[in-house]
Specification:
two-stranded parallel sheet, 111 residues, alpha/beta, single chain
Length: 111
C-alpha cells in the first residue's frame, strides 16, 4: 500500500513524499501512519483506487481523513500520468523501487 503527497508549483506537480508498506502489514497500522502523515501536510483527504474495498475508506475515516475512491482504474491513472511525466510536468522523487515499477508497468502496457 503506497502513499504519495504532492503539491503544485505553477504548472509543475511536485511529489513531496512517497511511502510504501509491503505485505504482510496491519491495515490498521498503515491507515494510522498514513493519516498522521497526511495531517502533517495539512491535508484532510486522500484519493486512491478501489483497493480492498471499504476497509480503506473506513480505516482512514477512523483517523479523521476522508478517502475518496477514484473513478479511474489503477491502469487508467498510470496511463494518464505518463504524458505528464514525459512532458516534465511532474517532479518525482528519486526512488529506485518506484522507477523500476513504472518501467515494468510501462513495458507491459506497450506490449
Amino acid at each position: 500500500m503506497t502513499l504519495g503527497i504532492a503539491h503544485r508549483e505553477g504548472e509543475t506537480i511536485v511529489l513531496d513524499l512517497l511511502r510504501e508498506y509491503r505485505p504482510p502489514f496491519s491495515p490498521e497500522t498503515v491507515c494510522a501512519d498514513y493519516a498522521s502523515l497526511i495531517k502533517k501536510y495539512r491535508c484532510s483527504q486522500t484519493f486512491g483506487d478501489r483497493y480492498a474495498g471499504e476497509w480503506v475508506v473506513e480505516g482512514f475515516r477512523k483517523y479523521g481523513v476522508h478517502y475518496e475512491e477514484c473513478e479511474q482504474t489503477r491502469t487508467e491513472l498510470y496511463l494518464n500520468t505518463v504524458p505528464l511525466i514525459n512532458s516534465c510536468s511532474v517532479a518525482l522523487l528519486d526512488n529506485e523501487r518506484s522507477c523500476s515499477s513504472s518501467c515494468r508497468l510501462s513495458g507491459r502496457l506497450q506490449a
